[in-house]
Amino acid sequence: GGQQQRVAVARALILEPHVMLFDEPLSNLDTKLRRQMRDDIRRLQQETGITSVYVTHDQSEALSVSDSVVVMKEGGIAQIGTPEELYRKPNSAFVATFMGDANILDAVLTYDDGRASVVVEDATIPLGDIGDEFAAGNVKLAVRPEAVRLVADQSQPGLPTARIESRAYVGSAMEYTVSLNKHSLFVIMPSQEREYSVGEKVQIDFNPVGTAIINESAP
């Protein structure tokens, strides 16, 4: 498993290249081998110091092997940044959803003594100092599924109430679809935490880490 990829890399290294291009190198491998090979490629790049361009449609590969990620859209650059920047602070709905699952929500941005907060369905999310890029008022948010927390209904006053529409056990996590007024949210929670049933009412809380304001005019 992965022998073809290892041979190809070894042949390329013999030429002592200044730049190496990896074009979907792991697309025909199973999940376990993909993880092993991407770790090998990352370690090799770090040890040799060779600049490498890695082309992939797999978001986890892009995040795990890169120092800098370029997201392309219609032949142009949508955003450049570190893996953490693109995942946690996407500049558009396109980048947010390209780099993984994201809930795109309507919110209201407010400032208090320079510190920003957003209100989503009566839930207030403190964002801290985000500079002056965004004006107070209506905004769009990108919220990662793991940044949404479900709590038992009415256990925490002030949080909005939602309804479990579907659930799926995927081993290490439970995946939920919940309805929150006009929004439908995709939520990922560790499977060790309390499980909720379809039709059950829950309250929604948001983690500021994994919540970002996005620019609606960005490409």
List keywords for this structure.
alpha+beta; Rossmann fold; OB fold (Dihydrolipoamide Acetyltransferase, E2P); five-stranded antiparallel β-sheet; 5 helices
CATH topology label of the largest domain: OB fold (Dihydrolipoamide Acetyltransferase, E2P)
Shape: globular
Q: How many domain regions?
A: 2
Q: Any idea what the CATH architecture of the largest domain is?
A: Beta Barrel
- Determine the structural class based on helices, strands and strand pairing: alpha+beta
Poorly predicted tracts of residues = none
- What's the number of extended β-strand segments? 14
Q: Can you identify the CATH superfamily of the largest domain?
A: Nucleic acid-binding proteins
Residue share in helix: 10-25%
- Element-level helix/strand string: HEHEHEEHHEEEEEEEEEE
Number of helices: 5
N/C terminus separation: 39 Å
Q: Give me the side-by-side strand order of the main sheet.
A: 7-6-5-8-14
Top-tier CATH class of the largest domain = Mainly Beta
Major β-sheet profile: 5 strands, antiparallel
Mean pLDDT: 90
